[in-house]
Input
Amino acid sequence: MNRRTLFRLFLASGFAPLGACARPAQAFSETIAVFGTIVRMTLYAQNQQQATQAFAAVNARFQQIHTDWHAWEKGGLVSKINDAIAIGAPISINNEVAQFIRRNQTLCQQSNGLFDPGIGKLVKLWGFHQNSYEDNKTANETDVQTLLAQKPSILDITWDNDTLFCPNPSVSLDFGASGKAYALNAATDTLTQQGIDHAIIAIGGDIQVLGQKPDGAWRIGINDPLQAGKAKANLSLEDGEAACSSGTYERFYTELGKKVSHIIHPKTGQPVSHILHSTAIHRDALIAEVAALSQLIAGESQWQSIAQQLDVQYSYLITPEGKEIISRNLTKRLNVLT
Output
């Protein structure tokens, strides 16, 4: 499920002191293939050994998350959970996973159900559960309506301590969005544990930073969805902030001349087309990711209430006509280029 990064990174290439280091820190970069995309990292370390150890630690954490969270990874924990839900059986899971799913349930409520990782079967109906979807066909409307009538939702899951049970067999968990945000938070935590205080990590269209570059804050550019290869705007990220994006113009297939987006509205079961791009910024990557997706689905008239419910102050949306929608607090930080 490769997708081009919705952000561009503006990275310094020189070496310079950071903070009160005894010697100048150096920039080191690494790419990792995981989560069906390419993860790009740049960090500042005292030497190659420290950088190599940090990258290895992050990679190990990523591989664990990929195996555990990927909804369609056979043998992975989420796959086992979905198998249990399908037959109406309880399943005991570790506390970390249980807390993550509970948090997803809370965010589902806060987004008025527009973010709902329980609609994995809807995603599968439209063919976006696989690595290649260019040859997909539009979902059968009868199948979509039959599934919607069963109202699948992550909120159907109940708990007995860390034992999960779901009485609705139409539920299938898919953490394609929130799993990457979880990985961003895990990566920054891992780098901090490795003694890295200045770094930037990009997973698909999601970015999180630690500290800053030698010459100031990390700057990112937001691509213009209507003009390939051209930046629409740029902004600075502060220490610990995550900028997450959601878009209907990157992952899609075309049938009868119509683009079919990978973003499926949980209430209608249909691909979303009314917003091209959505960005949200928050210190918690998971909240930023949920906000970016939910405000895109909510659309021009309702995005603001969703952002407020998720306590997101920095939002940026682009309509199919190229209209920019910018939250008041973000106007102070955003530099529009076109």
